[in-house]
Design goal:
Layout lengths: L2 H11 L1 H12 L6 H26 L10 H21 L13 H24 L4 H25 L3 H28 L2
């Protein structure tokens, strides 16, 4: 997997955190620096942790399934991407939460938005990526995107939330298709 592909996956996976960060930004008149940095830290940490867990959990059985690993990667990326697209098209209204920045709530949100990254970590094992670099990139990308999301949510609001989630889902779907096509056309 190339560096560009890893960055694209990191950006795509961070779109859930971005969408939630926008919502967090909506909940305050003017966010303090801690209300911008803390979501970035929590979302970034869990976005980095989950793929590492998925990677190390799956590395033990990759040898037995290498003949169809591309289909597993396609299915996982497709499910994650499809879920993100479906959620982006949902008309569900979210009300601002005046207690949105409590550490327990931020922790729960960080875990919830990083579950998709756990599945992505499983696919990383199939492609023998440098997991340390991959999780660092994923965590840093999510950190910055989440901080940006709080600030954007505070200034422009709800309009960007569904668009970012849709774009992230499309990127994951396209990467899944690319993996299958490369394997079917170029595998030796």
């Amino acid at each position: 997997m190339s560096l560009l592909e890893i960055i694209l996956i990191a950006v795509s996976l961070s779109m859930d955190a971005f969408a939630v960060s926008i919502t967090l930004g909506l909940s305050v008149k003017k966010p303090k620096i801690t209300e911008i940095v803390i979501p970035g830290l929590f979302f970034g940490f869990f976005q980095a942790l989950m793929p590492a867990i998925g990677y190390f959990a799956s590395i033990h059985f990759t040898d037995g399934i290498q003949k169809f690993d591309h289909w597993i990667a396609f299915a996982l990326l497709g499910l994650i991407g499809g879920k993100m697209i479906k959620e982006s098209l949902s008309k569900k209204e979210e009300k601002p939460d005046e207690n949105a920045f409590q550490l327990l709530k931020i922790s729960v949100l960080a875990v919830a938005t990083s579950v998709d990254a756990l599945a992505a970590g499983i696919t990383f094992a199939f492609f023998k990526v440098n997991i340390f670099n991959t999780v660092m990139i994923t965590g840093l990308v999510t950190f910055f995107i989440s901080m940006t999301g709080v600030k954007i949510g505070n200034t422009v609001g709800e309009k960007l939330k569904s668009k970012s989630e849709f774009a992230g889902g499309m990127v994951l779907l396209m990467l899944g298709i690319k993996i299958v096509i490369e394997h079917l056309l170029f595998a030796a």
